[in-house]
Amino acid sequence: MTEQQAAPRSLDDLSLARAVAEAVCQLPAVLELSAGRFAREGTYGPGEFVRGVVLKRPTPDSLEVDVRVVLAEQALRSSPVQRDGYSTRSGGSVGTGGSVGSRPQRRPPPSSASSSSASNALSLLELSEQIRTAVQRALAQAGQQPARMIHVFFDDVR
């Protein structure tokens, strides 16, 4: 009886992994799912492998999901600029024009270096939250209870 229970769960996990993969790949910042940097990670099933989505069941009634993605470099570069119209690097408005010598060059205050890295970190946090939301939505649409944990791994940026 335990073998009968294990087989349907495996098939269910495979279809669930497919649904998660499809939902994550629909996000504009995600180029593709990654099978991992050092080992091939994904969900295995009969004759099929869903790359980049690992489903774990620490207990029979809980689910953890690992998602490995490759991000679009353009999404990381453009999101801070598009939010408020200001470049996070220069602190000025985007597209102000003028030559380099037409304005005095000011050094950014020392705190702007940390705010620049903080804005990049914030972008990654926002992207990981978008991925987690897409995963939870896919699980809900598949009739699955919410995942206990969703781990997002950024394997590459292209």
Keywords:
158 residues, alpha+beta, 4-stranded mixed β-sheet, two-stranded antiparallel sheet, 3 helices, 6 strands, globular, disordered N terminus
Write the layout of secondary structure elements.
Blueprint: H1 2-25, E1 30-33, E2 42-45, E3 48-51, E4 53-56, E5 64-71, H2 73-84, H3 110-141, E6 149-157
Helix pairs in contact: 1-3
How would you portray this structure in words?
The protein has 158 residues and is α+β, with helices and mostly antiparallel strands. It is built from 3 helices and 6 strands. The protein has helices spanning 2-25, 73-84, 110-141, and strands at residues 30-33, 42-45, 48-51, 53-56, 64-71, 149-157. β2 (42-45) and β3 form a beta hairpin. The longest helix has 32 residues, at 110-141. The chain is globular, with a radius of gyration of 21 Å. The chain starts with a helix and ends with a strand.
How large is the share of residues in beta strands? 15-25%
The H-and-E topology, N to C, reads as HEEEEEHHE
Shape: globular
**If you compute it from the alpha carbons, what radius of gyration comes out, rounded to the nearest whole angstrom?**
21 Å
pLDDT under 50 segments (min length 5)?
1-11, 79-122
Distance between the termini: 47 Å
